[in-house]
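Q: what does this look like with NAP bound?
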Amino acid sequence: MKTILITGCSSGYGREIACHFHAKGWNVIATMRSPRRDLFPASDRLRVIALDVTDAESIALALELAGPIDVLVNNAGVGLFGALEHSPMPKIRDVYATNTLGTIAMTQAVIPQMRARGSGTIVNITSSATLASFPLAAAYTGSKTAIQGFTGSLAHELAPLGIVVKLVEPGYGPTTAFAQNTDIRLEDVLPEPYGSYAAPILAAMAEPALFTTEADVAKAVWQAVHDQTGRPHFPAGADAIALVA
Ligand SMILES: NC(=O)c1ccc[n+]([C@@H]2O[C@H](COP(=O)([O-])OP(=O)(O)OC[C@H]3O[C@@H](n4cnc5c(N)ncnc54)[C@H](OP(=O)(O)O)[C@@H]3O)[C@@H](O)[C@H]2O)c1
C-alpha cells in the first residue's frame, strides 16, 4: 500500500486531497501546523502530524515520524491580494517563505529517501495565476511562478533517479479558507486610486462564471500521481482548464 504526505491539510484543497487518497485505499499522512485529528475519518491508514513548512526542525521531525513516503504533495500556501505598493514587506516575505521556500525545503528533505529507493513522486500545487496574469496579485503570483520554474528544472535532474515531479495548477476556489487565512484588510491594501480600480474586479470575484472545487484539485492530484505519460502540468478546475484551452 502506498503512502502520501500532504502539507496544509487543515482545510481546503489539502484536506480534500487527504480524504480522496484515503478513500481510494492509500496510507495518508495529513500534516498541518496545529494537528486536528477530528477533521478526518477514524482510520489506521490516516495519521495527522504537525508540520510548519517554514520551520526546518518541524520538517525534519515530521518526516522522521512519517517514515517512508511514496508521494509528497506540497499544498500549504498563503495568499496575498492587493496593490503591491501597499502590501507590507513582512507579509510578502511570509508568502514567499511558505509558498516558495516551504515547497523547496520540503522537496529537498524528501529527495534522499526517494533517491535511495529509486522511486517517488512530488506534486507541487501552484495556481492558475501562473497560467495567465491576474491583477492585484503580483507578489502571490511571483511566489507560485517561481515554483513553476523550480519544478520544471528539478524534474530533469530527478528523472534519472526514478523521482517524478509534477505541477497541479488549481483555479479560484471560493469555498476554501484561502481568503480568510490572512490578517490583511482589503481597505489597507487598496486605498485610492487602487480602490476604484479594484471594485469591478472584486465584484467579478464575488460571482465567478467558472471556479474550482476541492474535489477538482483532489482529482487532478490523483491524475498527476498516476500519470504514466510524462505530462508535467495538471490544471485543476473549470476556470484553470479554460485558461489553458
Ligand atoms: N483557493 C484558491 O483560490 C486557490 C487558487 C489557486 C491555488 N491555491 C493554492 O492551493 C493551496 C491550498 O489553498 P486552499 O485554497 O486550500 O487554502 P486554505 O484552505 O487556506 O489552505 C491552506 C493550507 O495551508 C496551510 N498553511 C499555511 N501556512 C503554512 C505553513 N507555514 N506550514 C504548513 N501549512 C501551512 C494552512 O494551514 P493553517 O491551518 O496552519 O493555516 C491551510 O491548511 C495553496 O497553496 C494555495 O496557494 C488556492
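Helices lie at 12-23, 56-66, 89-117, 138-158, 186-189, 194-206, 214-226, 238-244. The longest strand covers residues 163-170.
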